[in-house]
C-alpha cells in the first residue's frame, strides 16, 4: 500500500501531489468496482494506438485512435507533435469515434432498381456494383468521351478518385470547398499578394497583437489551431475586433464588436483604408518597398470617410476610427483575417481584395503576428503512366470565370442540363465525400441536372441525402478503418502525418483507394494502380522522404526543417511577390484588364422586404456541415439546429423559445421540416440565423432525420461572383410560418 | 492537498469538447454526461454580454452528497475528490437530491455517477480528460494547497467566482471572470 | 433580455429539465412511515399510561396496520432504488449525517418491533385461533410481559420515525422548498394525525372516537399553524425560496395544495371533528378518510414540487 505512494506523485509540474491515501482506501476493499474501473482504464494503456489524421473536417489534425479488442474505437486523442492540433482535437475530432460507431452507416453497395413501379435500392455485391460502374465508365467514354464523366469530391476519398478520373481521361472535377467556400479569398489574395491563403491559413494568430475577424466566427468555426491560437492571443492581451452582424462567440471575446449591417463590409473596409491613409497610419516603408498602386488606392478611398460608411454600415464613425487606430497601433502584428467560407454576396473576391489591401497597408503579410510564409514538403508521386490529355476539363467549363482556379461545382452541374450550345456535356457523375444536395445551393438546378444525368454513383460512408439520387451507392469505410494519402500541409514548419487503419472496415465497406483501383482495373487502367495495397504506396513515399511506415506508425507526425527561407520578411532583404509586377498589387491591373473593378467598390445589396428576414447561417462548434448530424456522440451534444430570432421580432410574430416554425423564402420555397425557435439578443432584428447542416431528409439517418431545417433548401437566390464563379448564398430572405404549411399535403 | 479546477470563462467558447472527451474517456453512456456547457446572455442588441461555461461536479469541500449518502458509497478521497463507489451505491437518489448543481446522474446500470476529476488519470500523472483536450486551453487543474501551482496563482491574480455559493457547499471548481 | 440555456450535454433522463428522481413510491413510503409512527406512538402512550382496556383500538386493532404499513413502505422504498440488489449496503454502516441512513436503521429496529407488538396481542386479536406450537405460546407470553418495555422503546422510535419522514426532505439544502426547519415537525404532526384518523376509523367505542378526534383536531391546528409558519418563513427568504413557495401558492401545485391538502385534507375534517366533539352527529369515517387522503396528497405535492426547485438555472 505504501509502495503505491511513489507511483502517484507525478504531476509535479502542476504542483500536484499524490492520491496515495485514496488508493490505499480502495485497496482495502478487494472487489471494489471503482478499482475495476481503474483496472479497465489501465488497459486503456494497452488499447491499440494507431496513427491517423482526422477527417471530420479539413483541418486534418493528426491524432491517435485507441481501439480495443472487441472492435471498438475507445477514444481519439490529438498528436502532441502536430502543428495542426498541438495534441488537442476539437469536439468533432474527439467525437470522431461516432463516425465509426454509427450503426446507420452504409453497409453494402446498393443498386437502384424498380420494384412494382417504385424506385428503390437493392443490396448488391461489390463485384456486381463495380462491374456495373465500369460498364458505365466505358459507355460514357465511347459515346461522349471520358470528359463527360464528372467527379464532385471533397476530402480524402477525392484524391484517390481524382487519380482514377485523370487516368481515365477526365478532369471534369470540382469540389464545394472552392466555389461554395474559399474560392473568393484565394482569388482576392492571389491577385494582391500572388499567393493563395490556403489551408491551414498562415495567420500568425498566436503572436498577433490585433486580430480582426470579419464574419469569421472562430470559436464556432472550430478550425483547430485558429481556435487555440486565438485563445493564446486573448492570453497575450491582443486586441480582438470582430465584425459580424450577429453576436458571435468570437464577438463576445472581442474588445470591439462592430455590429455591422449585413452585406456592407466593403464599405467598412474602405473607410478603414481611408482612415489609415488620411491619418498617416499605414506602413509607409512597407508600402513603398513592396506595393504598387498606392496612389490609385489613395485617390479611390479619398471620399470613403467613416461618416460615409456610417450611413451604410450603421457603425459609428468614432468606432471605425478607433478600430482603425487600434490596428495601426498593433501593426505589423495585425491580422485582417481572410475568413474561409466567403461566398456571401457575389462581390466576394472584391471583399477579399479589400481585406488583402488592408493587410498590405498595415504591413502584416510576411510579418510576425501577421501572416507568415508557409511551407510544405512535397510528397513524391508514386510512379504511374502519364495521364491522357482530356479534350476539355473544368477550366473550359468555368471559362466564363477567368480567375477560377479550381472547378466550379455549380458550373459542372449546369453542363449536365442538355442544351444546344452546351459544348461540354456532362453525362455521368461520381460523387465522393460531398453531400452536394446540402453543400451546393440552388436545389432546382441540382435536381434538373441529376434528372438529366445518365448515371450517378455516390461513394459515401453514410446514407446522406445525396445517396438518394444515386444509381449506385458505394459504402466507404471511415477514416479510422483505412489508409489514405500522406498529409502534407503548409505550415510554419513542414510536417507530414499518416493515416493508418485502427480497425478493419466494418460491415462490407471498403476504402476509397480500393474502390478507385477496382474500377481502374476493370477499365484496363491497372498500370495506374501498380500495388496491392495502398500501404505500399505510402511505404514507398515515406522511404523516399527519409522515413518509413514503421517509424510513422510510431510517431504519427514528422516535422522537416524549413528550406524556403525565413518565416517572415527579413529587414533589408528584397522580396519578390508572385504577382505580375512582383509587388503587392493594391491596384489590380489584372482585374482592370478583365473588365472588373481594379479597386474594391461598395455595391448595395438587396435588403429583406417587409415581413422577411435575411437568412444568416454558420457553424456549430460540435458539428461539421451535414456530415456529423447523425454521429451518435455529436448528435448527443446537439441534435438539431435552432432558428435564432431577435426578441423584437419574436414579439411582433408572437414567437416563443422552443416553438416549432417553418420557413418560406422569397421564391416561395417552403422548408420541408420545422425548426425550433431560440429567442435571443445575439441576432439582429432584420435577420434570422441557423447552423448549417441539419434538416436531413433520409429516413435511414435515424438520429438526424427531420431534425431542424436545411439552410441550403432556403438558398435559391445565388449571387454568382463574376470573377471566380463563387456562389454567394447570403442574399436569401425568409418568412416565418407558425402553422405547418404541409398540414394538408403529404411529404 | 486540495485539487481544484479553474476555468477561464473569458476563453471558453462553449465548444463542448470537454463533454465529448469525458464521454469517451469515462465510458459515459450516450444520453448522459458528467460535464455540460451553459450559456448566459444578458443585455440588448448590440450591448450584450455572453458567458460560456463548462460545468461539472464541484467536488465541494462541504459536500452534501457525501453527508446524505446512507451507505458511504459517496465519499471523499485525498485531495478532496468526491467519488462514488458503484458497488456500494443503492441508487437511492439522496445524493442527487442534495446536489445544488445537479451534477450527478443515475447510470443506466443503476448506480449514481458523476465527474471524478478523472481520478484514474491523475494517478497516472495525467490531467483530467476534459482539461487535456480543451482547444482554448481555458481549463486548469492543480493543487490549491500549493501556492505555486498554476491554479493558486490564477485565483490570486484574477477575478473569479464559484457557482451558487449561497448553497454553502464550498465548491472547488472556480470560474475566472 | 436575459437568457440562460444549456449549450450541450444536458438532457439526462430524470434529471433534466427538472428532477424526477423520486417517484410515487417515495411519497407512499413517507406517508406510510408517518402513519406507522402515529400508530406506534399512540399504542406506546396508551400502554405506558396503562389505559389499554379503555382504549383497545390503538394498542390492538390499529397496531395490525403498523407492520403492514412499515413493510409496504420499505417495499416502496426499495422499489424506487435504482440499484436495489445492493440494498444490503445500507446495513454495512451507520452514517449519522445521513437521514436516509438512520431512517433505514430506525426501520430495521421498528419494523420487527411492530410485528412483535402485534404478536403479543395475537390471542386477544384472534381469540378463535390457537397458536400451534408451545414455544410460540411461550414467546407470546414473554412479549406480553414485556409490552411496557416495548412501549418505552416505541415512543422515541416512533417520534424519530415521524420526524425522519420530514427531515429526509428538509435536510436537502439544494431543494429550497424542502430546506426549512418546519418540514420535520410538520411531517411528524401530519403522521400523528393520520395515525389518529386510522384509530378513529377502526374504533368501535364513542369514547375512543371522542378522544382521538380531539387529539386529531389539535394536530390539525398545529399543522395549519406550521404551514402558515413555513409559508411566511419562505416568503421572507431568498429568491429561490420565494420561487419555491410560489409553486405551492401561485403555481402548478396550487390546486393540489390548497384544494386537497389544506381545505379537504385539513380544514374540512377539522370542522367536522369539531362538530363531532361539540356533539353533532357526524359520520366519523368522513373526516378520518379525508385526513388520510390529504396526508397522502400532501406528501405527493411536497415530493414532486420540491424536486422542481433548485438554485441554478
Ligand atoms: N447552405 C450552406 N452551404 C454550404 C455551406 C454553408 O455554410 N451553408 N458551407 C460550404 C462550405 S464552406 C463547404 S467547405 C462545403 C462542404 O461541403 P461537403 O464537404 O459536401 O460537406 P458535408 O455536408 O459534410 O458532406 C460530406 C459528405 O461526405 C461524407 N463523408 C464523410 N466522411 C467520408 C469519408 O471518409 N468517405 C466518404 N466517401 N464520404 C465521407 C458525408 O457522409 C457527407 O455525405 O459546403 C458548402 N456549402
Ligand atoms: N465546427 C465547425 N467548424 C468549421 C466547419 C464546420 O463545419 N464546423 N467548417 C470549416 C469550413 S470548411 C469553413 S469554410 C469555415 C467557415 O467558417 P467562417 O469562415 O468563420 O464562416 P462563415 O460561414 O463565413 O461566417 C459565419 C459568420 O459570418 C457572419 N455573417 C453573416 N453575414 C455577414 C455579413 O454580411 N458580414 C459579416 N461581417 N459577417 C456576416 C455570421 O453571423 C457568422 O457569425 O469553418 C470551418 N470550421
Ligand atoms: S479541426 Fe476538429 S474536425 Fe477538423 S480535423 Fe481537426 S479535430 Fe478533426
Ligand atoms: S472544451 Fe474548453 S472551450 Fe470547449 S466548452 Fe469545454 S471548457 Fe469551453
Ligand atoms: S457538486 Fe454536487 S455532487 Fe459534486 S461534491 Fe458538490 S454537492 Fe456533491
Ligand atoms: S444514490 Fe448511491 S451514492 Fe447516492 S446517496 Fe444513494 S447510495 Fe449514496
Ligand atoms: S474531470 Fe474527468 S470526469 Fe470530470 S468532467 Fe472532466 S473528463 Fe469528466
Ligand atoms: Mo469550407
UniProtKB/TrEMBL annotation, chain A:
One of its GO terms (molecular function) is oxidoreductase activity. The keyword Transcription does not apply. Residues 1-25 form the signal peptide. The keyword Amino-acid biosynthesis does not apply. Keywords: 4Fe-4S, Iron, Iron-sulfur, Metal-binding, Molybdenum, Oxidoreductase, Signal. InterPro entries: Asp_de-COase-like_dom_sf (IPR009010), MoPterin_dinucl-bd_dom (IPR006657), Mopterin_OxRdtase (IPR006656), Mopterin_OxRdtase_4Fe-4S_dom (IPR006963), Prok_Mopterin_Oxidored (IPR050612), TAT_signal (IPR006311). Pfam families: Molybdopterin (PF00384), Molydop_binding (PF01568). It comes from the Bacteria. Residues 47-104 form the 4Fe-4S Mo/W bis-MGD-type domain. Belongs to the prokaryotic molybdopterin-containing oxidoreductase family. This is Nitrate reductase. It comes from Flavivirga rizhaonensis. The lineage of its organism: Bacteria, Pseudomonadati, Bacteroidota, Flavobacteriia, Flavobacteriales.
TrEMBL record, chain B:
Keywords: 4Fe-4S, Iron, Iron-sulfur, Metal-binding. This is 4Fe-4S dicluster domain-containing protein. The keyword Ribosomal protein does not apply. Residues 3-32, 48-79, 80-109 form the 4Fe-4S ferredoxin-type domain. It holds the Pfam family Fer4_11. InterPro entries: 4Fe4S_Fe-S-bd, 4Fe4S_Fe_S_CS, ET_IronSulfur_Cluster-Binding. It comes from Flavivirga rizhaonensis. One of its GO terms (molecular function) is 4 iron, 4 sulfur cluster binding.
UniProtKB/TrEMBL annotation, chain C:
It holds the Pfam family NrfD. GO terms for cellular component: plasma membrane. It is a multi-pass membrane protein. The chain crosses the membrane at residues 26-49, 61-82, 102-122, 151-172, 178-203, 215-235, 255-275, 282-302. It is found in: Cell membrane. Keywords: Cell membrane, Membrane, Transmembrane, Transmembrane helix. Coiled coil: none annotated. Belongs to the NrfD family. This is Nitrite reductase. It comes from Flavivirga rizhaonensis.
Amino acid at each position: 500500500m505504501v509502495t503505491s505512494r511513489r507511483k502517484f506523485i507525478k504531476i509535479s509540474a502542476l504542483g500536484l501531489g499524490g492520491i496515495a491515501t485514496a488508493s490505499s482506501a480502495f485497496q482495502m476493499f478487494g472487489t471494489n468496482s471503482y478499482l475495476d474501473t481503474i483496472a479497465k482504464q489501465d488497459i486503456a494503456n494497452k488499447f491499440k494506438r494507431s496513427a491517423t489524421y482526422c477527417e471530420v473536417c479539413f483541418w486534418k489534425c493528426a491524432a491517435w485512435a485507441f481501439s480495443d479488442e472487441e472492435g471498438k474505437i475507445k477514444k481519439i486523442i490529438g498528436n502532441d507533435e502536430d502543428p495542426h492540433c498541438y495534441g488537442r482535437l476539437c469536439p468533432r475530432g474527439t467525437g470522431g469515434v461516432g463516425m465509426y460507431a454509427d450503426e446507420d452507416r452504409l453497409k453494402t453497395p446498393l443498386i437502384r432498381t424498380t420494384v412494382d413501379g417504385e424506385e428503390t435500392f437493392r443490396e448488391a455485391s461489390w463485384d456486381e456494383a463495380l462491374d456495373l460502374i465500369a460498364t458505365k465508365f466505358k459507355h460514357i467514354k465511347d459515346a461522349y468521351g471520358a470528359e463527360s464523366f464528372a467527379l464532385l469530391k471533397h476530402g480524402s476519398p477525392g484524391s484517390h478518385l481524382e487519380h482514377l478520373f485523370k487516368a481515365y481521361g477526365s478532369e471534369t472535377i470540382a469540389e464545394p470547398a472552392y466555389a461554395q467556400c474559399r474560392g473568393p479569398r484565394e482569388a482576392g489574395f492571389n491577385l494582391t499578394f500572388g499567393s493563395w491563403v490556403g489551408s491551414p491559413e498562415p495567420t500568425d494568430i498566436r503572436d498577433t497583437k490585433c486580430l480582426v475577424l470579419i464574419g469569421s466566427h472562430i470559436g464556432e468555426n472550430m478550425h483547430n489551431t485558429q481556435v487555440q491560437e486565438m485563445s493564446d492571443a486573448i492570453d497575450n492581451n491582443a486586441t480582438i475586433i470582430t465584425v459580424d452582424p450577429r453576436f458571435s462567440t468570437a464577438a463576445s471575446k472581442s474588445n470591439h464588436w462592430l455590429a455591422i449591417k449585413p452585406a456592407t463590409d466593403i464599405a467598412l473596409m474602405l473607410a478603414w483604408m481611408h482612415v489609415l491613409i488620411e491619418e498617416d497610419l499605414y506602413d509607409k516603408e512597407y508600402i513603398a518597398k513592396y506595393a504598387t498602386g498606392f496612389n490609385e488606392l489613395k485617390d479611390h478611398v479619398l471620399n470613403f470617410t467613416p461618416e460615409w460608411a456610417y450611413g451604410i454600415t450603421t457603425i459609428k464613425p468614432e468606432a471605425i476610427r478607433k478600430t482603425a487606430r487600434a490596428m495601426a497601433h498593433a501593426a505589423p502584428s495585425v491580422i485582417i483575417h481572410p475568413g474561409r467560407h466567403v461566398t456571401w454576396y457575389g462581390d466576394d473576391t472584391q471583399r477579399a481584395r479589400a481585406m488583402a489591401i488592408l493587410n498590405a497597408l498595415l504591413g502584416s503579410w510576411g510579418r510576425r503576428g501577421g501572416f507568415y510564409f508557409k511551407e510544405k514538403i512535397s510528397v513524391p508521386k508514386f510512379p504511374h503512366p502519364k495521364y491522357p490529355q482530356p479534350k476539355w476539363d473544368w477550366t473550359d467549363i468555368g471559362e466564363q470565370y477567368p480567375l477560377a482556379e479550381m472547378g466550379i461545382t455549380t458550373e459542372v452541374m449546369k453542363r449536365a442540363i442538355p442544351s444546344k450550345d452546351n459544348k461540354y456535356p456532362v453525362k455521368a457523375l461520381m460523387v465522393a465525400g460531398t453531400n452536394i444536395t446540402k453543400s451546393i445551393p440552388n436545389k432546382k438546378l441540382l435536381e434538373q441536372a441529376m434528372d438529366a444525368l445518365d448515371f450517378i454513383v455516390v461513394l459515401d460512408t453514410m446514407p446522406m441525402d445525396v445517396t438518394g439520387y444515386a444509381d449506385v451507392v458505394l459504402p466507404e469505410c471511415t477514416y479510422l478503418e483505412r489508409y489514405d494519402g500522406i498529409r502534407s500541409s503548409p505550415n510554419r514548419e513542414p510536417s507530414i502525418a499518416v493515416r493508418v487503419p485502427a480497425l478493419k472496415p466494418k460491415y462490407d465497406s471498403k476504402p476509397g483507394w480500393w474502390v478507385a483501383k477496382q474500377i481502374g482495373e476493370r477499365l484496363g487502367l491497372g498500370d495506374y494502380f501498380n500495388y496491392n495495397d495502398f500501404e505500399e504506396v505510402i511505404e514507398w513515399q515515406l522511404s523516399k522522404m527519409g522515413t518509413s511506415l514503421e517509424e510513422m506508425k510510431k510517431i504519427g507526425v514528422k516535422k522537416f526543417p524549413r528550406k524556403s527561407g525565413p518565416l517572415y520578411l527579413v529587414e533589408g532583404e528584397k522580396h519578390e511577390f508572385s504577382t505580375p509586377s512582383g509587388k503587392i498589387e493594391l491596384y489590380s491591373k489584372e482585374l482592370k484588364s478583365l473588365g472588373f473593378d481594379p479597386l474594391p467598390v461598395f455595391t448595395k445589396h438587396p435588403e429583406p422586404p417587409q415581413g422577411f428576414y435575411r437568412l444568416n447561417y454558420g457553424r456549430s462548434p460540435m458539428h461539421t456541415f451535414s456530415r456529423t448530424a447523425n454521429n451518435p456522440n455529436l448528435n448527443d451534444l446537439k441534435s438539431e439546429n435552432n432558428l435564432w430570432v431577435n426578441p423584437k421580432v419574436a414579439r411582433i410574430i408572437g414567437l416563443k423559445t422552443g416553438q416549432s416554425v417553418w420557413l418560406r423564402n422569397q421564391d416561395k420555397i417552403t422548408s420541408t421540416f420545422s425548426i425550433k425557435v431560440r429567442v435571443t439578443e445575439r441576432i439582429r432584428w432584420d435577420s434570422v440565423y441557423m447552423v448549417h447542416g441539419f434538416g436531413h431528409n433520409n429516413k435511414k439517418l435515424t438520429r438526424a432525420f427531420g431534425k431542424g431545417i436545411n439552410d441550403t433548401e432556403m438558398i435559391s437566390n445565388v449571387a454568382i461572383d463574376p470573377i471566380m464563379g463563387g456562389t454567394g448564398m447570403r442574399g436569401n430572405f425568409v418568412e416565418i410560418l407558425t402553422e405547418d404549411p404541409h398540414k394538408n399535403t403529404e411529404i | 492537498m486540495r485539487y481544484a479546477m479553474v476555468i477561464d470563462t473569458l476563453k471558453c467558447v462553449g465548444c463542448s469538447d470537454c463533454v465529448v472527451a469525458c464521454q469517451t474517456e469515462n465510458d459515459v453512456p450516450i444520453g448522459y454526461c458528467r460535464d455540460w456547457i451553459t450559456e448566459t446572455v444578458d443585455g440588448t442588441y448590440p450591448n450584450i454580454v455572453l458567458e460560456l461555461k463548462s460545468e461539472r461536479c464541484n467536488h465541494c469541500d462541504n459536500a452534501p452528497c457525501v453527508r446524505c449518502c446512507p451507505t458511504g458509497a459517496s465519499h471523499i478521497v485525498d485531495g478532496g475528490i468526491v467519488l462514488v463507489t458503484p458497488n456500494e451505491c443503492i441508487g437511492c437518489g439522496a445524493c442527487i437530491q442534495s446536489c445544488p448543481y445537479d451534477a450527478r446522474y443515475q447510470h443506466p446500470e443503476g448506480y449514481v455517477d458523476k465527474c471524478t476529476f478523472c481520478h484514474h488519470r491523475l494517478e497516472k500523472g495525467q490531467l483530467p480528460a476534459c482539461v487535456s483536450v480543451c482547444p482554448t486551453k481555458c481549463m486548469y487543474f492543480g493543487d490549491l494547497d500549493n501556492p505555486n501551482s498554476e491554479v493558486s496563482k490564477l485565483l490570486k491574480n484574477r477575478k473569479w467566482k464559484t457557482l451558487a455559493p449561497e448553497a454553502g457547499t464550498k465548491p472547488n471548481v472556480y470560474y475566472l471572470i | 433580455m436575459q437568457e440562460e440555456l444549456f449549450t450541450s450535454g444536458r438532457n439526462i433522463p430524470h434529471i433534466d429539465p427538472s428532477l424526477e428522481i423520486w417517484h410515487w413510491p417515495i411519497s407512499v413510503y413517507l406517508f406510510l412511515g408517518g402513519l406507522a409512527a402515529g400508530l406506534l406512538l399512540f399504542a406506546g402512550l396508551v400502554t405506558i399510561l396503562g389505559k389499554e382496556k379503555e382504549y383497545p383500538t390503538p394498542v390492538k386493532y390499529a397496531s395490525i396496520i403498523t407492520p403492514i404499513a412499515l413493510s409496504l413502505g420499505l417495499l416502496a422504498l426499495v422499489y424506487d432504488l435504482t440499484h436495489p440488489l445492493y440494498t444490503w449496503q445500507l446495513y454495512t454502516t451507520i452514517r449519522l449525517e445521513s437521514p436516509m441512513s438512520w431512517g433505514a436503521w430506525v426501520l430495521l429496529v421498528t419494523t420487527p418491533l411492530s410485528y412483535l407488538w402485534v404478536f403479543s396481542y395475537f390471542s386477544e386479536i384472534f381469540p378463535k385461533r390457537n397458536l400451534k406450537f408451545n414455544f410460540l405460546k411461550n414467546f407470546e407470553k414473554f412479549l406480553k410481559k414485556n409490552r411496557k418495555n416495548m412501549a418505552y422503546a416505541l415512543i422515541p422510535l416512533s417520534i424519530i420515525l415521524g420526524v425522519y419522514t420530514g427531515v429526509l426532505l428538509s435536510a436537502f439544502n439544494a431543494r429550497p422548498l424542502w430546506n426549512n426547519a418546519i418540514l420535520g415537525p410538520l411531517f411528524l404532526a401530519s403522521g400523528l394525525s393520520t395515525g389518529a384518523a386510522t384509530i378513529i376509523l377502526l374504533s368501535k367505542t364513542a369514547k375512543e372516537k371522542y378522544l382521538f378526534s380531539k387529539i386529531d383536531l389539535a394536530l390539525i391546528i398545529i399543522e395549519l399553524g406550521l404551514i402558515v409558519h413555513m409559508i411566511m418563513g419562505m416568503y421572507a427568504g431568498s429568491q429561490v425560496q420565494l420561487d419555491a413557495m410560489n409553486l405551492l401558492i401561485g403555481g402548478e401545485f396550487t390546486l393540489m395544495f390548497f384544494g386537497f391538502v389544506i381545505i379537504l385534507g385539513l380544514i374540512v375534517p377539522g370542522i367536522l371533528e369539531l362538530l363531532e366533539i361539540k356533539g353533532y352527529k357526524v359520520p366519523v369515517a368522513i373526516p378520518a378518510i379525508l385526513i388520510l387522503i390529504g396526508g397522502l396528497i400532501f406528501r405527493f405535492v411536497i415530493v414532486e414540487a420540491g424536486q422542481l426547485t433548485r438554485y441554478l438555472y
